[in-house]
Amino acid sequence: MQDTTLAAHAAARSWKPLMSGISIALLREHDGERTLLLRMDPGARFPRHLHPGGEQVLVVSGDVQLGEHDLSAGDYLYTARGEIHAVASRGGCVLFITVAKPIELLGEAAPAA
Question: In this predicted structure, what is the pLDDT of residue 2?
Answer without folding.
Answer: 61
